[in-house]
Design a protein that fits this description.
Elements: H1 6-19, H2 30-38, E1 45-50, E2 56-67, E3 72-82, H3 91-106, E4 110-113, H4 120-128, H5 144-152
Parallel strand pairs: 3-4
Antiparallel strand pairs: 1-2, 2-3
């Protein structure tokens, strides 16, 4: 991913949020994405997929995790998205393969992500790649007022 890709990736993030019926939650700005990817200490990494004309048609944004059980890093895929007109062309598969290659090249133990329970097309896509769901695990999240209240309740 290059800095010039940021506006297009931000537009695609908003498309993804609309697809997930969560447009009101997509608050990231161009500056925030640019800083996360290309600032002094990048904590976010990304890849783009281009169509035959060289236009960005999809993206994968990810960050490092660490497995205390395996003793190695892994990749958490925050978002993988291919615009509707380019689905079924292999771009999504190549983005996922790129991340799998990042893991194998770096000696990482895991490539993980979350998917909405209702997103059957994505679940089928991930299963076809050989991914398995982590049954028995539930994702928890603190945000907004709950996050602030919990942090402020320190002794």
């Amino acid at each position: 991913m290059r800095p010039d890709d940021v506006p297009t990736v931000l537009r695609l993030v908003r498309e993804l949020a609309a697809y997930e019926e969560a447009e009101h939650e997509a608050l990231m700005t161009d500056e925030q994405l640019r800083t996360a990817l290309f600032g002094e200490t990048p904590a976010l990494f990304g890849h783009v997929a281009e169509d035959a004309d060289g236009e960005v048609a999809g993206f994968a944004l990810w960050f490092l995790t660490f497995s205390t059980w395996r003793g190695t890093h892994g990749i958490h895929l925050e978002d993988l998205y291919v615009s509707p007109g380019h689905r079924g062309t292999g771009l999504g598969r190549e983005l996922l393969r790129t991340l799998a290659q990042e893991c194998t090249d770096r000696g990482f133990a895991r490539l993980e992500w979350s998917v909405l329970d209702w997103n059957t097309p994505s679940i089928d896509f991930y299963r076809a790649a050989g991914a398995v769901p982590m049954d028995g695990w539930t994702v928890f999240r603190l945000t907004d007022d709950a996050l602030t209240r919990f942090a402020a309740a320190r002794r």
